[in-house]
Amino acid sequence: MEELQKVLKKAKYQKIKFKFIATNHLVVKIKLNGIHGNFILDTGASNTCVGYEAIERYQLDVVDSDDKAAGAGGTGMDTQVSKNNILQIGRWKQKEYTVIVFDMSHVNEALRDHKAKPVHGIIGADVLMTGKGIIDYYNHYLYLK
Prior knowledge:
Layout: H1 2-10, E1 14-17, E2 19-20, E3 26-32, E4 35-41, E5 49-51, E6 62-71, E7 74-89, E8 92-102, H2 105-113, E9 121-123, H3 125-130, E10 134-136, E11 141-144
């Protein structure tokens, strides 16, 4: 694994620590518009999302969207979209980033049921694709370029 870290460092990847929580979800610390938060790293989520309750926290300008969210909480969930945000994970930073806003109460309710702390959002495959993401599960690192 040390070889992997050396190769990725040489390729200018940023190494970001994550932790496993009681539900075996991966959680990373992020900054959205300069505000800290804990987000689930979800390879199955297509987009990076926050809950409605986080709109004010992250100073999001939102507009209604015709797109519907689907996931473990069901299908057909109404969404809003917020563009032109600054997303930072470790030293990896993206400007003009779009996040989806929807009702995440079911996610946090499930976490609380398992004695885990609630999260502010979800990092989705959009970040992993943009950042050419590599997940080192064994050592608990996310690498983004």
